[in-house]
Design brief:
Layout lengths: L1 H16 L60 E3 L12 H13 L4 E7 L6 H21 L7 E7 L10 H7 L1 E7 L1
Parallel strand pairs: 2-3
Antiparallel strand pairs: 1-4, 2-4
């Protein structure tokens, strides 16, 4: 249990460091990774009475679909991971910022973070890895304005693959955290 806590703390520090070659010190004020979720000129949404329409801007696909919230495109509700890793890639900063802003603006919204792993490794190891991945995403969302009461985590390990097969492209689809809004 202590090892899991130590790993979780280390992962949070890695996420805070912003990965992309920055020094090992926490960069909580880095607008490129965490931004301002209260609005202003940093590109964050104004969360006072915000509607789903306000979370559409900046869609990764330019199709008008929201990046955050329950109406987000499926591709904006899945965070993928590298092999045997649980650190959140900076490529997902905008998506997680949008979900965090949505949650901050909608106090009644609830989000379940479902952690998954590919088939490699033992069942127990993969359950732990899925949990570490879900917790890493949770920490980023908390930094973006979501409250702890809005977020829950569950790990399915390798038990619910998105794709069946034994090659890198299949494994890559299975190393993920799915963001599932609750009704």
């Amino acid at each position: 249990m202590k090892r899991i806590e130590s790993v979780a703390i280390a992962l949070v520090l890695v996420v805070l460091a912003g990965c992309g070659g920055q020094s090992g010190t926490a960069q909580q004020d880095d607008p490129d990774l965490f931004g301002e979720y209260g609005g202003g000129e940093q590109g964050g949404a104004d969360t006072t009475g915000a509607s789903d329409d306000e979370f559409r801007e900046g869609s990764a696909f330019g199709d008008g679909a929201p990046m955050g919230g329950p109406g987000a495109a499926a591709d904006n509700r899945i965070i993928y991971f590298e092999f045997d890793q649980s650190d959140v890639d900076s490529d997902y900063a905008d998506v997680l910022r949008a979900h965090g802003s949505y949650l901050a603006a909608n106090a009644g919204a609830r989000l379940r973070l479902e952690g998954h792993a590919d088939e490699r490794g033992s069942r127990e190891y993969n359950l732990g890895l899925g949990e570490r991945r879900a917790q890493a995403v949770k920490q980023v969302l908390l930094l973006q304005g979501a409250s702890a009461g809005q977020l829950s985590t569950v790990s399915y390990g390798e038990e619910r693959p998105a794709s069946i097969g034994s090659d890198e492209s299949t494994w890559g689809l299975n190393r993920r955290v799915e963001l599932v809004y609750q009704r």
